[in-house]
Amino acid sequence: MTLAAFIVLMLLGMPIAFVLLASTLTFVITSGNYRLFENLPQVIFGSLEVFDLLAIPLFILLGEIMNEGGITRRIITATRAWFAWIPHSIAYVSLTSNLMLASIMGSATAQIAIMSRVMTPELERDGYDKGFAAALTAGAGLLGPIIPPSMVFIIYGVIAQVSIGAMFMGGILPGLLLFILISGLIAIMARRARKKGSVDQERTPLWRATRGALLTLSIPIVIVGGIAFGIVTPTESAAAATLMAVMIGALFFQELKWGQLPGVLSRTARNTAIVLFLIVAAKAFGWVLVYNQIPQQVAGLMQGTTESPLVFMLLVFVMLMVVGMVLDGIAALIILVPILLPVAQQSYGIDPIHFGIVTCMTLSLGLLTPPVGAGLYVASAISNVSLPRITKWILPFIIAACLVILAVIFNPWLVNVFR
C-alpha cells in the first residue's frame, strides 16, 4: 500500500517532500499499529534536533548576502580579468567562478541560479550558443555538492554520524579533478559552440578587478582553512564567513543596506524551510523502511550477489544513478544512507567517508538528469533556453562526472589526501 501510494503520487507530479510524507502517513494509517501515531512525531522532531544542521541556514544566508553585497559580482569580474589571455576565456571564467562560489555557498541549485543569471547572457554576448552557455553553467554546478562547504556533505555527516569536516576535506581532490576534466571539455566544445567572427568583450583591468576580489577570497580561506586546521567546526565556519560577508558587503563595498536585510532573511528562511521539510519527510519515510526491515533485506541481497567491496561500490553507483534520475538528491540521501551504509561498513569494510563521497557525488548527478534534473530546470528557466537545447550539450559533463566518481571508487585514497 505504501509503495503504491509512493508510485501514484510520484506519477501525479506531487512535490517529492509531500510524496514521502503522504506515503509515510499511508503506512501508519493502514498498519493497524496505533502506537506508530505516537512514534511518528518523535521521529519528525528528532530529525531536526541536530546541531550540525544549523550550518544549512547559515550557508544559505551567506549566499544571499554575497549576492546583495556585490561579492558574487566581484568574483566574476576578477576571474574575467585573470583569464582574459586564454582562448575562450569567458567559458573558463564561468567554470572558475563556479569553483569559487562552490567553495563558499554549499548549495548547487542556488549556485546554478546565480551563474545562469550572470554568465549565460555574458557567454551569449561573446558569441556562444545559448544552449552551450546554459549547459556549461549547469554542468559546472556539479562542483557545488563536491567542493566544501557542501550541503549534501553536511546532511550525510549528520545521518552517518561521521565528521563533516572529514567529508569536506575528502571532497577537495575529487572536486579539483572534475574541474580539470570540465576545463578539458571547454577546450574541445567551446570552438564548436561559438559563432565564427565573434569577438571577446572588453575586460576590466587586471589590478582593479583583483583588488575588488581580494577581500572576497578571504571567505573560502576562513571556511576551508578553519575546518582543515581544526580551528572551527563547519557550523562555526559558516557563522564566521557570514559575519565576514556582512562586513565586506556593508562596510567595504557599501552595497549591502539595511533595507535589503528583510528580503535576504525572508529568502533564507524560505529556502531553509524547503530543505528542512524535505529532511523531515525523507527521515520519516526512512523510518518506515527501517520498521519493515528493508535494510536487512538489502544486506542479504547484496551479500548474496557479491563478496567484493569493489563490485558492491559499482552496484551502488549504478543504483544511485537510477535513483537520482527520479528522486531528489537530499531525499534519496536520507532514505538510502541508513540502508546502504551499514551494509558497506559491516559486510564490506568500506570507509564511511569514502562511501559518503561516492554517494553524494553520484546522487548529485540527478541535478543534470531528467525527469527531476533540478539543475537543468533552473538553468533552463533563468537562461530562457529550452530543455532539449540544453540536453544537446549536457552529456559530456555527465560523462566527466561519472569518470571522476569511478576514479574515486577504484582509488579510495583520493578522499584521504587532504584529511
Overall description:
The complex comprises the extracytoplasmic solute receptor protein and the two transmembrane proteins. Belongs to the TRAP transporter large permease family. It comes from Vreelandella glaciei. InterPro entries: DctM, TRAP_DctM. With about 425 residues, the protein is an all-alpha fold. The protein has one domain. It is built from 20 helices and no strands. It has helices at about 1-10, 15-30, 35-45, 55-70, 70-80, 90-100, 110-125, 130-140, 150-160, 165-170, 170-195, 205-230, 235-250, 260-290, 295-305, 310-325, 330-350, 350-365, 375-385, 385-410. It is globular, with a radius of gyration of 22 Å. The protein starts with a helix and ends in a 9-residue tail after the last helix. The mean pLDDT is about 85.
Measure the end-to-end span. 45 Å
Query: Number of helical segments?
Result: 20
Radius of gyration: 22 Å
The SSE string, one letter per element, is HHHHHHHHHHHHHHHHHHHH
Mean pLDDT across the residues is 85
Helical fraction equals over 70%
Shape: globular
Characterize the main sheet.
Answer: none
- Looking at how many chains there are and whether they match, the oligomeric state comes to single chain
Q: How would you classify the helix and strand content by structural class?
A: mainly alpha
Number of strands: 0
Strand fraction equals under 5%
Show unreliable segments.
none
Count of structural domains? 1
Subcellular location: Cell inner membrane
Function: Part of the tripartite ATP-independent periplasmic (TRAP) transport system.
Pfam family, one: DctM
Subunit structure: The complex comprises the extracytoplasmic solute receptor protein and the two transmembrane proteins.
